Amino acid sequence: MIEVRNLWHIYEGRKIALRDVSLTIENEILALVGPNGSGKTTLAKHLNGLLKPTKGEVIVDGINTKNASVAELSRIVGYVFQNPEHMFFEENVFREVAFGPKNLGLSKDEIEQRVRWALKSVNLGGYEDRNPYSLSGGEKQRLAIACVLSMRPRYLILDEPTTGLDEKSAKSVKEVIRKLKEEGHGIMLITHDMELVLELADRVVLLFEGVKIFDGSVNEFFRLDLRNYDLDRPELLRISERLNIGFVRNVDEFVTQILERVRP
Ligand SMILES: Nc1ncnc2c1ncn2[C@@H]1O[C@H](COP(=O)(O)OP(=O)(O)O)[C@@H](O)[C@H]1O
Ligand SMILES: [Mg+2]
Prior knowledge:
Blueprint: E1 2-10, E2 16-25, E3 29-33, H1 40-47, E4 55-60, E5 63-64, H2 70-73, E6 77-80, H3 93-103, H4 108-121, H5 137-149, E7 155-159, H6 167-182, E8 186-190, H7 194-200, E9 203-208, E10 211-216, H8 218-221, H9 235-242, H10 251-262
Parallel strand pairs: 3-8, 3-9, 6-7, 7-8
Antiparallel strand pairs: 1-2, 1-4, 4-5, 9-10
Protein backbone atom coordinates (compact mmCIF):
# COMPACT_ATOMS: atom_id res chain seq x y z
CA MET A 1 0.00 0.00 0.00
CA ILE A 2 1.07 3.57 -0.64
CA GLU A 3 0.01 6.00 2.08
CA VAL A 4 0.16 9.74 1.65
CA ARG A 5 -0.34 11.41 5.02
CA ASN A 6 -1.08 15.10 5.42
CA LEU A 7 1.26 15.98 2.59
CA TRP A 8 2.24 19.59 1.93
CA HIS A 9 4.51 20.63 -0.89
CA ILE A 10 5.81 24.15 -1.16
CA TYR A 11 8.13 24.92 -4.07
CA GLU A 12 10.91 27.42 -3.80
CA GLY A 13 9.41 30.76 -4.52
CA ARG A 14 6.74 29.74 -2.01
CA LYS A 15 4.25 28.28 -4.44
CA ILE A 16 2.04 25.98 -2.34
CA ALA A 17 1.37 23.05 -4.68
CA LEU A 18 -0.16 20.56 -2.21
CA ARG A 19 -2.12 21.36 0.92
CA ASP A 20 -2.59 18.65 3.48
CA VAL A 21 -3.33 15.84 1.02
CA SER A 22 -3.94 12.33 2.37
CA LEU A 23 -4.77 9.21 0.36
CA THR A 24 -3.92 5.55 -0.07
CA ILE A 25 -3.35 3.37 -3.12
CA GLU A 26 -3.66 -0.39 -3.21
CA ASN A 27 -4.20 -2.84 -6.07
CA GLU A 28 -6.54 -0.63 -7.99
CA ILE A 29 -6.72 1.93 -10.75
CA LEU A 30 -6.86 5.29 -9.04
CA ALA A 31 -7.61 8.15 -11.42
CA LEU A 32 -6.00 11.41 -10.35
CA VAL A 33 -7.81 14.32 -11.98
CA GLY A 34 -7.94 18.08 -11.75
CA PRO A 35 -7.33 21.14 -13.93
CA ASN A 36 -3.85 22.23 -15.02
CA GLY A 37 -1.76 23.41 -12.11
CA SER A 38 -3.85 21.60 -9.49
CA GLY A 39 -0.87 19.60 -8.20
CA LYS A 40 -1.24 16.21 -9.91
CA THR A 41 2.34 15.90 -11.14
CA THR A 42 3.68 17.21 -7.84
CA LEU A 43 1.73 14.54 -5.97
CA ALA A 44 2.88 11.81 -8.36
CA LYS A 45 6.52 12.80 -7.94
CA HIS A 46 6.19 12.22 -4.20
CA LEU A 47 5.24 8.60 -4.71
CA ASN A 48 8.65 7.60 -6.02
CA GLY A 49 10.68 10.10 -4.03
CA LEU A 50 11.46 12.55 -6.85
CA LEU A 51 10.12 15.16 -4.43
CA LYS A 52 10.25 15.05 -0.64
CA PRO A 53 7.47 16.38 1.62
CA THR A 54 7.68 19.92 2.91
CA LYS A 55 5.39 18.57 5.64
CA GLY A 56 3.66 15.23 6.14
CA GLU A 57 4.90 11.88 4.87
CA VAL A 58 4.64 9.31 2.10
CA ILE A 59 4.97 5.62 3.00
CA VAL A 60 5.48 3.14 0.14
CA ASP A 61 4.99 -0.47 1.23
CA GLY A 62 6.26 0.48 4.68
CA ILE A 63 9.18 2.62 3.45
CA ASN A 64 9.18 6.32 4.29
CA THR A 65 10.25 8.16 1.10
CA LYS A 66 12.25 10.54 3.29
CA ASN A 67 14.68 7.74 4.06
CA ALA A 68 14.92 6.15 0.61
CA SER A 69 16.66 7.03 -2.65
CA VAL A 70 14.83 7.47 -5.95
CA ALA A 71 16.74 4.45 -7.29
CA GLU A 72 15.44 2.31 -4.46
CA LEU A 73 11.88 3.60 -4.76
CA SER A 74 11.77 3.25 -8.53
CA ARG A 75 11.96 -0.52 -8.06
CA ILE A 76 8.63 -0.28 -6.25
CA VAL A 77 6.95 2.64 -8.02
CA GLY A 78 7.44 3.01 -11.77
CA TYR A 79 6.79 6.43 -13.25
CA VAL A 80 5.83 6.72 -16.92
CA PHE A 81 6.20 10.41 -17.68
CA GLN A 82 3.98 12.45 -19.93
CA ASN A 83 5.20 12.35 -23.56
CA PRO A 84 7.73 9.59 -22.84
CA GLU A 85 8.48 9.21 -26.54
CA HIS A 86 10.96 12.07 -26.30
CA MET A 87 13.01 10.03 -23.89
CA PHE A 88 14.03 7.04 -25.99
CA PHE A 89 17.73 6.92 -26.72
CA GLU A 90 18.62 3.36 -27.70
CA GLU A 91 18.77 2.04 -31.25
CA ASN A 92 16.24 -0.71 -30.72
CA VAL A 93 13.31 -1.69 -28.52
CA PHE A 94 15.16 -4.51 -26.78
CA ARG A 95 18.00 -2.27 -25.62
CA GLU A 96 15.58 0.45 -24.57
CA VAL A 97 13.72 -1.92 -22.22
CA ALA A 98 16.96 -3.57 -21.06
CA PHE A 99 18.43 -0.26 -19.93
CA GLY A 100 16.87 -0.23 -16.44
CA PRO A 101 17.58 -3.89 -15.57
CA LYS A 102 21.18 -3.48 -16.85
CA ASN A 103 21.64 -0.63 -14.38
CA LEU A 104 20.45 -2.94 -11.63
CA GLY A 105 23.45 -5.12 -12.47
CA LEU A 106 21.35 -8.20 -13.26
CA SER A 107 22.69 -11.20 -15.17
CA LYS A 108 22.31 -11.36 -18.94
CA ASP A 109 19.72 -14.12 -18.64
CA GLU A 110 17.67 -12.24 -16.09
CA ILE A 111 17.78 -9.08 -18.22
CA GLU A 112 16.66 -10.99 -21.29
CA GLN A 113 13.86 -12.65 -19.35
CA ARG A 114 12.63 -9.35 -17.98
CA VAL A 115 12.70 -7.63 -21.35
CA ARG A 116 10.71 -10.43 -23.01
CA TRP A 117 8.20 -10.44 -20.17
CA ALA A 118 7.79 -6.65 -20.15
CA LEU A 119 7.33 -6.50 -23.93
CA LYS A 120 4.81 -9.32 -23.82
CA SER A 121 2.90 -7.56 -21.03
CA VAL A 122 2.37 -4.51 -23.24
CA ASN A 123 1.66 -6.57 -26.36
CA LEU A 124 4.95 -5.68 -28.05
CA GLY A 125 6.38 -9.19 -28.31
CA GLY A 126 8.30 -9.41 -31.61
CA TYR A 127 9.22 -5.70 -31.64
CA GLU A 128 12.69 -6.25 -30.13
CA ASP A 129 14.68 -5.12 -33.17
CA ARG A 130 12.53 -2.16 -34.13
CA ASN A 131 13.77 1.39 -33.76
CA PRO A 132 11.76 3.08 -30.97
CA TYR A 133 11.17 6.13 -33.14
CA SER A 134 9.61 4.02 -35.89
CA LEU A 135 6.72 2.99 -33.64
CA SER A 136 3.18 4.41 -33.68
CA GLY A 137 1.95 6.65 -30.85
CA GLY A 138 0.26 3.83 -28.95
CA GLU A 139 3.25 1.54 -29.43
CA LYS A 140 5.58 4.23 -28.10
CA GLN A 141 3.42 4.70 -25.01
CA ARG A 142 3.36 0.93 -24.47
CA LEU A 143 7.13 0.79 -24.93
CA ALA A 144 7.51 3.47 -22.26
CA ILE A 145 5.37 1.34 -19.94
CA ALA A 146 7.54 -1.71 -20.73
CA CYS A 147 10.70 0.25 -19.86
CA VAL A 148 9.27 0.91 -16.41
CA LEU A 149 7.79 -2.59 -16.01
CA SER A 150 11.18 -4.19 -16.57
CA MET A 151 12.11 -2.85 -13.13
CA ARG A 152 9.25 -5.00 -11.82
CA PRO A 153 7.55 -2.27 -9.81
CA ARG A 154 4.46 -3.04 -7.78
CA TYR A 155 2.92 0.36 -8.55
CA LEU A 156 2.75 2.36 -11.76
CA ILE A 157 2.16 6.03 -12.30
CA LEU A 158 0.89 6.84 -15.77
CA ASP A 159 0.86 10.55 -16.59
CA GLU A 160 -1.64 11.26 -19.38
CA PRO A 161 -1.01 7.92 -21.12
CA THR A 162 -3.61 8.39 -23.85
CA THR A 163 -3.28 12.12 -24.53
CA GLY A 164 -2.59 12.78 -28.18
CA LEU A 165 -3.25 9.22 -29.27
CA ASP A 166 -5.77 8.24 -31.91
CA GLU A 167 -8.64 6.02 -30.83
CA LYS A 168 -7.06 2.74 -31.87
CA SER A 169 -3.78 3.50 -30.13
CA ALA A 170 -5.59 4.69 -27.02
CA LYS A 171 -7.53 1.44 -26.98
CA SER A 172 -4.35 -0.61 -27.06
CA VAL A 173 -2.99 1.38 -24.10
CA LYS A 174 -6.26 0.93 -22.18
CA GLU A 175 -6.12 -2.82 -22.66
CA VAL A 176 -2.62 -2.86 -21.24
CA ILE A 177 -3.61 -0.77 -18.21
CA ARG A 178 -6.49 -3.12 -17.46
CA LYS A 179 -4.27 -6.16 -17.78
CA LEU A 180 -1.61 -4.70 -15.48
CA LYS A 181 -4.19 -4.11 -12.79
CA GLU A 182 -5.44 -7.68 -13.12
CA GLU A 183 -1.86 -8.84 -12.67
CA GLY A 184 -1.81 -7.13 -9.27
CA HIS A 185 -0.33 -3.69 -9.90
CA GLY A 186 -1.59 -0.57 -8.18
CA ILE A 187 -1.97 2.14 -10.82
CA MET A 188 -2.22 5.90 -10.51
CA LEU A 189 -3.70 7.17 -13.74
CA ILE A 190 -3.31 10.92 -14.23
CA THR A 191 -5.67 12.08 -16.91
CA HIS A 192 -7.91 14.77 -18.32
CA ASP A 193 -9.85 12.19 -20.27
CA MET A 194 -13.13 11.66 -18.45
CA GLU A 195 -14.13 8.81 -20.80
CA LEU A 196 -11.01 7.00 -19.65
CA VAL A 197 -11.94 7.59 -16.01
CA LEU A 198 -15.44 6.28 -16.64
CA GLU A 199 -14.19 3.18 -18.38
CA LEU A 200 -11.15 2.23 -16.34
CA ALA A 201 -10.98 3.74 -12.88
CA ASP A 202 -11.86 1.99 -9.62
CA ARG A 203 -11.63 5.22 -7.66
CA VAL A 204 -11.17 8.91 -8.37
CA VAL A 205 -9.23 11.59 -6.52
CA LEU A 206 -9.89 15.19 -7.56
CA LEU A 207 -7.31 17.87 -6.82
CA PHE A 208 -8.06 21.55 -7.07
CA GLU A 209 -5.50 24.22 -6.19
CA GLY A 210 -3.50 21.67 -4.24
CA VAL A 211 -6.43 20.51 -2.13
CA LYS A 212 -8.03 17.08 -2.34
CA ILE A 213 -11.64 17.95 -3.06
CA PHE A 214 -12.99 14.47 -3.68
CA ASP A 215 -11.93 10.86 -3.09
CA GLY A 216 -14.48 8.18 -3.88
CA SER A 217 -16.17 5.94 -6.41
CA VAL A 218 -16.46 6.73 -10.10
CA ASN A 219 -20.23 6.83 -9.82
CA GLU A 220 -20.11 9.44 -7.04
CA PHE A 221 -17.45 11.41 -8.87
CA PHE A 222 -19.62 11.91 -11.91
CA ARG A 223 -22.36 13.33 -9.73
CA LEU A 224 -20.14 16.35 -9.01
CA ASP A 225 -20.55 19.48 -11.05
CA LEU A 226 -17.39 19.03 -13.08
CA ARG A 227 -17.64 22.38 -14.87
CA ASN A 228 -16.30 23.94 -11.66
CA TYR A 229 -13.07 22.07 -12.30
CA ASP A 230 -12.67 22.48 -16.06
CA LEU A 231 -13.63 18.88 -16.63
CA ASP A 232 -16.17 17.49 -19.10
CA ARG A 233 -18.87 15.01 -18.46
CA PRO A 234 -18.55 11.96 -20.74
CA GLU A 235 -21.02 11.98 -23.60
CA LEU A 236 -22.17 8.47 -22.71
CA LEU A 237 -23.30 9.64 -19.27
CA ARG A 238 -25.12 12.64 -20.68
CA ILE A 239 -27.05 10.39 -23.01
CA SER A 240 -27.82 7.78 -20.37
CA GLU A 241 -29.08 10.49 -18.03
CA ARG A 242 -31.33 11.93 -20.71
CA LEU A 243 -32.78 8.47 -21.19
CA ASN A 244 -33.10 7.97 -17.46
CA ILE A 245 -30.84 4.97 -17.49
CA GLY A 246 -28.72 4.54 -14.40
CA PHE A 247 -24.96 4.88 -14.25
CA VAL A 248 -23.15 2.98 -17.01
CA ARG A 249 -19.41 2.51 -17.55
CA ASN A 250 -19.24 1.71 -21.27
CA VAL A 251 -21.23 1.25 -24.44
CA ASP A 252 -21.87 -2.44 -23.75
CA GLU A 253 -23.49 -1.69 -20.40
CA PHE A 254 -25.49 1.08 -22.02
CA VAL A 255 -26.80 -1.23 -24.72
CA THR A 256 -27.67 -3.90 -22.16
CA GLN A 257 -29.75 -1.37 -20.22
CA ILE A 258 -31.56 -0.23 -23.35
CA LEU A 259 -32.32 -3.78 -24.43
CA GLU A 260 -33.69 -4.65 -21.01
CA ARG A 261 -36.14 -1.80 -21.36
CA VAL A 262 -37.43 -2.55 -24.82
CA ARG A 263 -37.85 -6.24 -24.18
CA PRO A 264 -41.31 -7.15 -22.94
N1 LIG B 1 9.46 23.38 -10.11
C1 LIG B 1 8.47 24.20 -9.73
N2 LIG B 1 8.74 25.38 -9.11
C2 LIG B 1 7.75 26.22 -8.72
N3 LIG B 1 6.44 25.97 -8.92
C3 LIG B 1 6.10 24.82 -9.55
C4 LIG B 1 7.10 23.88 -9.98
N4 LIG B 1 6.45 22.82 -10.56
C5 LIG B 1 5.15 23.10 -10.50
N5 LIG B 1 4.92 24.29 -9.89
C6 LIG B 1 3.62 24.91 -9.60
O1 LIG B 1 2.91 24.08 -8.72
C7 LIG B 1 1.53 24.00 -9.07
C8 LIG B 1 1.15 22.55 -9.33
O2 LIG B 1 1.80 22.10 -10.50
P1 LIG B 1 1.69 20.63 -11.06
O3 LIG B 1 1.90 19.66 -9.95
O4 LIG B 1 2.58 20.51 -12.24
O5 LIG B 1 0.15 20.59 -11.51
P2 LIG B 1 -0.59 19.65 -12.60
O6 LIG B 1 0.26 18.45 -12.85
O7 LIG B 1 -1.91 19.33 -11.94
O8 LIG B 1 -0.80 20.48 -13.82
C9 LIG B 1 1.36 24.90 -10.29
O9 LIG B 1 0.94 26.15 -9.83
C10 LIG B 1 2.76 24.99 -10.86
O10 LIG B 1 2.96 26.21 -11.53
MG1 LIG C 1 1.03 17.65 -14.67
